Structure formats: structure tokens, C-alpha cells
């Protein structure tokens, strides 16, 4: 006799409970939506700023997000000032630079004290020289100067001059004294050349300056050596186009390739634009420290690493080491990947090899490219 009323009572209670919970859910959802709107309104409106300036003989571009133009301009000028100060230390073109003065004193009877910046770059360079058995070598200054003349005159150097340059080359002749931050060049005629490492280091320092000014969503492009901080607003990372050598038969509409990066660096090395052709042979501006001759294999190397100094120097080293030895080295390094594209002849199809984790960096979507 009481079953029907009991069932009715259960239905009423159930309806009331549903209404209570439904109202609570709607109220919570409304509060959450209003909270999101308030949070979006409270976030600062970031604008994209871009600054470019010629430093270290190349174009440096700074791209970052800031709230106002005045603060952005102040940070940019501070970053450029830092790069200019580094050039005074690291340049091999400026005879007044610390690097040039160090080289001009060779051979040194005693170790010479150097600045923190030069010490940091030389320490990194020597560590990589040992790991690559001299494929990366900042003592190649005499050889590099010889090949600069070759590219101007389109004439191979005399064998005797090449042998003299080789005798003045060798990372084993560059001594670093860890205890006192001192450097010694022990062989006559030694000239240091930081062309394969200095720009990456300068990009690291520039992005550090931007961070110190509060701008973490930043990119520094040092003539193709790129260091990035946090991703742009509402993006997973900075999208960067990868350049690779193409044959004369490459289709014009061939899809471009991109990688997405945040808080990392990428550097590319190759002879796509800098080379000389003599008697039908193509010589790269990149020289092999072991032979003293410009590389003859057309190779484009792209390296992604945690910082610019590592990416820049590794890209230079892999150009000399080649694909097999280069990828063996990359496999031993944390958070480092590489793409090597080789074209043996100008009419042949390019052949590429990559490190194990490279494919995770490439994206198929084509968003606007960071220039």
C-alpha cells in the first residue's frame, strides 16, 4: 500500500537532488568561465617587437614580446651593446681586439691572463676539439686567412704556404691554465679564429640580456645562428625554417621544412653561399684543420642544442667530420639533434641523414616563418 507513495517520494527527492546539483554545476561553470575571462583581462597585452643591427660582420635580429615600445627599445639597445662589447673581445678582424692581441704575441713565453668571456669561449672550444680529435679547432687562423685570399683571387695557395700555415695550426699548441684563467700559444705564427663559435656565444649573451630585462619570449638570430627563449604567446615554440642544399632539378614549389623550438638553439653550417670554384672543383669556405684545404663535399649541417655556443660549434665540427662520425658524436650528447644534407654533385638528388630524435622537432603545418 505504501509502495506507490514511496516511489513517488523517491522521484521527488531525485528531482530535487538533480536540481540542486544541476544548479551547483551551472553556478560553478559560470564562475569558472568568468574567472577565465577575468584572467585573460588581467594578463598584459604583449606586442611583438623586432630590432636589427649589424654586429660581428653579420646581421643580428632580436624578436621578442613586450608590453610597451620604450621598455622593448631599452632592452634591445642593451642586447646590442653586449654583442658589440663581445666583438671587441672575440674578433679576429679587429687588430685591437683581445683575441688579436693574444694571437700577435705568439709564441708566449708565459701564460697570458684573459677575460672571462674569452676564457669561456676558449674552454668550450678546447673541450670540443678534444672530443672531435681536432675537427673543430680555433687555431685554424693561419689557414682561414690563406683561404680568404684564395676566394678573392680564385687561385689555390702555393703548397709551401699551405704547409707553413699547417705548422702554425693545432689545438694541442693552445694551453689553458685552469687555476689562473690564463692562456698560452706555444707555437710561432699561431692565430686564433672564433668564426665557428663566437656568434652562437654572442646570441646566448644577447638573450640573457633580454631575460634580465624581463623579456623571456625572445629570439636572437645571429646571421643564422638562432637562440630562443620561451615560446611566443599561444604557441608551442618558435617556428624556424631549415635551409638545405637543392639540386638544379629541385622543384620550385617543394615544401619548406620547419622545426619548433623553445629554450634551445639551432645553428646551420654549409657552403650554400660561401664557396669558390677553381678548375671545376668547388671549395667551401670551411676548411679542414687536418689538411688545410677547403671542404669539397657540399654538405649542409643543422644542429639543435641547449645553447648557442654548443649548436654553433657543433655545426662547424660536423661539417668537417661528415655524417657517420658526426652522428656518432651527437648520439652521445644530451638534448642535441642534427640533420645533415649532402649533395655530391650539383645535379644529384640531396641525401639526408638525421640523429634519432630529429623527426620529433619537425612540424608539418606551415605557420608564418620567423625571419
Descriptive overview:
This protein is of the alpha+beta class. The chain folds into 3 domains: 44-92 and 194-231, T-fold; 97-185, ApbE-like superfamily (T-fold, Orthogonal Bundle); 236-366, Roll (T-fold). The chain is built from 9 helices and 16 strands. The strands form 4 sheets. An 8-stranded antiparallel beta sheet has the order 1-2-6-7-10-13-14-15, covered by helices on one side. A hairpin with an 8-residue loop joins strand 14 (337-342) and strand 15. The N and C termini lie far apart (82 Å).
What is the helix content? 25-40%
CATH architecture of the largest domain: Roll
Shape field: globular
Work out the radius of gyration. 28 Å
- Distance, first to last CA: 82 Å
Quaternary status of these chains? single chain
How confident is the prediction overall: mean pLDDT?
A: 85
Strand content: 15-25%
Spell out the CATH superfamily of the largest domain.
Answer: ApbE-like domains
SSE-based structural type? alpha+beta
Summarize the structure.
This protein has 371 residues and is an alpha+beta fold. The protein is built from nine helices and 16 strands.
List keywords for this structure.
371 residues, alpha+beta, T-fold, 3 domains, eight-stranded antiparallel β-sheet, three-stranded antiparallel β-sheet, disordered C terminus
Topology overview:
Layout: H1 3-42, E1 47-55, E2 58-66, H2 69-90, H3 98-104, E3 112-113, H4 116-131, H5 141-153, H6 159-167, E4 174-177, E5 182-185, H7 198-212, E6 218-222, E7 225-228, E8 238-242, E9 257-261, E10 264-269, E11 275-278, E12 281-284, E13 299-305, H8 308-321, H9 323-331, E14 337-342, E15 351-354, E16 362-363
Antiparallel strand pairs: 1-2, 2-6, 3-5, 4-5, 6-7, 7-10, 8-9, 9-16, 10-13, 11-12, 13-14, 14-15
Helix pairs in contact: 2-7, 4-8, 5-6, 7-8, 8-9
Amino acid at each position: 500500500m505504501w509502495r506507490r507513495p514511496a516511489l513517488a517520494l523517491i522521484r521527488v527527492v531525485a528531482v530535487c537532488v538533480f536540481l540542486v546539483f544541476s544548479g551547483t554545476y551551472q553556478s560553478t561553470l559560470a564562475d569558472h568561465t568568468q574567472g577565465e575571462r577575468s584572467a585573460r583581462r588581467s594578463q598584459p597585452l604583449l606586442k611583438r617587437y623586432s630590432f636589427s643591427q649589424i654586429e660581428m660582420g653579420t646581421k643580428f635580429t632580436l624578436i621578442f614580446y613586450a608590453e610597451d615600445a620604450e621598455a622593448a627599445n631599452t632592452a634591445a639597445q642593451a642586447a646590442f651593446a653586449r654583442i658589440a662589447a663581445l666583438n671587441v673581445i672575440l674578433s679576429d678582424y679587429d687588430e685591437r681586439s683581445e683575441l688579436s692581441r693574444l694571437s700577435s704575441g705568439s709564441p708566449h713565453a708565459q701564460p697570458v691572463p684573459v677575460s672571462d668571456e674569452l676564457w669561456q669561449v676558449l674552454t668550450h672550444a678546447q673541450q670540443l676539439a678534444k672530443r672531435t680529435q681536432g675537427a673543430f679547432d680555433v687555431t685554424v687562423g693561419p689557414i682561414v686567412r690563406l683561404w680568404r685570399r684564395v676566394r678573392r683571387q680564385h687561385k689555390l695557395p702555393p703548397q709551401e704556404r699551405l704547409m707553413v700555415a699547417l705548422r702554425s695550426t693545432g689545438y694541442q699548441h693552445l694551453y689553458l691554465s685552469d687555476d689562473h684563467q690564463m692562456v698560452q700559444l706555444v707555437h710561432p705564427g699561431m692565430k686564433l679564429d672564433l668564426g665557428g663559435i663566437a656568434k652562437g656565444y654572442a646570441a646566448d649573451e644577447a638573450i640573457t640580456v633580454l631575460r634580465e630585462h624581463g623579456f623571456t619570449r625572445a629570439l636572437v638570430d645571429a646571421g643564422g645562428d638562432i637562440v630562443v627563449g620561451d615560446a611566443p604567446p599561444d604557441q608551442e615554440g618558435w617556428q624556424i625554417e631549415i635551409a638545405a642544399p637543392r639540386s638544379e632539378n629541385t622543384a620550385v614549389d617543394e615544401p619548406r621544412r620547419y622545426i619548433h623550438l623553445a629554450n634551445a638553439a639551432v645553428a646551420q653550417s654549409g657552403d650554400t653561399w660561401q664557396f669558390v670554384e677553381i678548375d671545376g672543383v668547388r671549395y667551401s669556405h670551411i676548411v679542414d684543420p687536418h689538411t688545410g684545404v677547403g671542404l669539397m663535399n657540399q654538405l649542409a649541417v643543422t644542429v639543435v642544442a641547449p645553447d648557442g655556443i654548443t649548436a654553433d660549434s657543433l655545426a662547424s665540427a660536423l661539417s668537417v667530420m661528415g655524417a657517420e662520425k658526426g652522428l656518432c658524436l651527437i648520439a652521445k650528447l644530451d638534448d642535441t639533434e642534427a640533420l645533415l644534407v649532402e649533395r655530391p654533385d650539383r645535379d644529384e638528388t640531396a641525401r639526408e641523414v638525421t640523429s634519432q630524435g630529429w623527426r620529433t622537432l619537425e612540424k608539418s603545418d606551415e605557420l608564418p616563418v620567423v625571419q
